[in-house]
Amino acid sequence: MMLTLLILCICSAAATLHSCPHPNVPENGHIVFDGPSPYAPFTPNTVAKYSCAPGFDKVGGTDERICSPSGSWSGEAPVCAIDVAAGKPAVQSSGNSASSVSRGLCTISDNIQGSWWEVDLLGSYEVHGVSIRLGKQSSHILNIYLIQQNGELRQCDISAYSFVENATVFVICELDRVDKVRVVAESRLHLCEARVFATNAVSSWQCSQSMMDVLGIFEGLCYSASREERADWLGAQRKCLDRGATLPMKMSDISQRGLRAALAASPFQKEFYWIGVSSSLTDWRWADGTTVAEEDADWSNSKILTSNRPEAVVLARLAEWRWIPSAQNVWNSFLCQSKPKSCTFPGVGEAGRVSFSSQTFTIGSFSVYTCEEGYELEGDAERVCEESARWSGDIPRCRKKKCSNVDVWSGGGIVRLLNGTTEYGNEIEYECLSGWKLIGERRRWCQHDGSWSGFAPSCKVVDCERPPSIPNGSVSVALTIYGSVANYTCQDGYRLIGHATVSCGSKGVWEPAIPVCYDIATLRELKTDSAENHAGLAALIVVLGLLLVFAVLRFSRASKSVPICEKPAPPYGAPNVIYAIPSVITNPSDSVVYYAPSAPLTKMELPPHLVSLKPLPSGHFQATMPIGRPLIRPQLPIFAPSPTPSQLLYSFDYEPIYDVPPDVGGKPESPEEENIYEKLPDIRPNL
């Protein structure tokens, strides 16, 4: 039995386990699985471990997620983002070292109310959060603002964060098309770190310039600086061309500002760097031969005219990385301008799948999205790696398919949504109204194709079938369906004990219990004997009670040190009193009551009204009954056994009552109480 129960428990637990779909993977991220299979569906306890592409940092979420038995992944996926504030120009309300934060140093403002620091991201980014670290002289941080191109400010909620000295605090603050970020302090601002994380940025790794130091990506172009290499201007151009690049040319104001800030923050800066501007007889030209417009030039002073000798332009540290002319035959370090070579992983939503035309994600390759069984795609099914090294569009989503609504059921009962929705994998349950029986499957589930499993059940009215006949009586009934009634009557000379009318119940059985017909003469004889025995027993109880009181009073006078409760109880031996042992069980297959006296086992049948039971401290029951002769009455219906072997079963009107026998205490009926035996007609059957 225990083995069977254990197997049932294991099977029940296994039936509730659900597999997990493929977890979502952020753009620029990767995932590996610690489990039996790297493909969906994933079994419970499978671990998904996240990482990011080179140059990207994990922000928020958890590094590992676990497939739970409920079919969902724990925690949230992290975001893979880049610090787009690194190497960007910054200003502050006072002081003169705002850009030093990009070089790993601290900047400090004057002790002025509302001091602030602001960084220009030189582009619009999808910001996910900001992290800052304060120095010991900083006052309390009042606000962090995300500023869009149109000047609109978004205030970050920093109420849940505590900014303490030398502790890096990451603040979740999300907004698209952010151009600037501003940090405002109560008075003095001592800022040692400020990082702005964006997801739609390009990393230096995507520039594929392994022999050079990538300074930054501005307006979709990579700018790299030579390390120890030097060359004249023409030689520098050839070296860039060999690497799929060119000396920087046609740079906008944003790119030139970015270069100045990046070079100022670079720890490997040289004195001069060639760019792609050279002189002609009359003007300055870009490396492709087009004329440099006056507004595109970034001279350190006023415009410099060309000379008769071949010259080119360098970015000079002494000129704060602005333009100055130099003879083309001078050997200098150089910058290269190139396009990114590849995209990163495009990301995939939960329950989604993605395939690629190129596993290296080169520019121009495309990715194709599909969904797992039971899900449908929302969004673009195809994305392209564009020249900016960003994937077109957004990651499409996979949503669970939905089955049709089941508000109306032709079966006429009730339909319940067990999981709250009609999505794939969820169940519905049918229930008929009271008095009706369900025909078919009680539950159906939404399948992967958006249809409900099986067929809708129907409801059929409950039929109790014809009620049973009784000895010495008859039954009349017209219908046997739910709500119908049947009437019982007894033959002459018999008394109906129970309910004369029963009805067909909602469970398909007649209610209440079927009555029986008793012999009236036998009932009258039992009643007479019971009355005499009750009178004698009452007198005996009174005498015993007086003797007990007398003995207690006398003993209490003789010795007050012994409690009354410690005196031995008077022996039981009154006439007509026997002891019923609970271990001797009432036979559940008939209506005979068994008693276990000290004498041999006696079998007697009495109406419950004539028996009085009283529990004793020893665990026995004291049963008081009249002396009668064994009687045989018609066989009664079989009832369910007692719930526990230690319970006595008493049956009256065929309704079992446990542990509370009638007339507990043995008191005779009061004259006011209804006595069914006094109403018996004086009729005896012919013997």
UniProtKB/TrEMBL annotation:
Gene3D superfamilies: Complement Module, domain 1 (2.10.70.10), Galactose-binding domain-like (2.60.120.260), Mannose-Binding Protein A, subunit A (3.10.100.10). This is Sushi domain protein. The chain crosses the membrane at residues 534-553. The keyword Glycoprotein applies. Disulfide bonds join 371-398, 403-446, 432-459, 490-517. Residues 661-687 are annotated as: Disordered. Pfam families: Lectin_C (PF00059), Sushi (PF00084).
